[in-house]
Amino acid sequence: MRIPLKVQGVTDIATANDTALLIVTDQQEKKQIALVVNPHLRYEFAIRRGKYINDKEHSKIAAEHLETALPETMSAMIKYMTELELAVVIVGIFDGEYRAVLEDQRSGTIFAIRASDGILLSYADPHIPLYAEESLWERQSMPYMGTDAKGISMPLNTLSTDMLKQAMQKCIEEEKYEIADQLKKELDRRSDN
Known about the structure:
Shape: globular
Number of helices: 7
């Protein structure tokens, strides 16, 4: 079974590499997962939400960007050239990164896609639904606290190895040894695989 999802937005996190979190919830907005995204993808989501459109000049630049952006162009090509009925399905997680597939719902043919890119494609084209496998959703999702929440809970396995190492070092420096120990256990678990 699959859980239908929707994008809530992107929120900044304080890290050295300027990453952000992409928040995706179930349709009832009860639970969420957070995906770490780079500055480029943060911008791509933000421009589609109108975040950088402050005046007519920015509005024109955004419109020109979206006319030739890859997700919109791919979507238009797919509709024009094929009978595909695509869906993006988040199917797993490996080394801190969610895995997804682009699936033709008619034939069941699947193509691997980076989860954040698949979500962007779905966001750019509302005719491409976004789902998560139910077992993954039950394992990974956390309660959704709304867009004004002060913090975001997320499983340790959604952080890259580098992010875990940085967080562990920061916890040691701040003498938060219990949290540092949890981070070390996650790093050890990954090195055993």
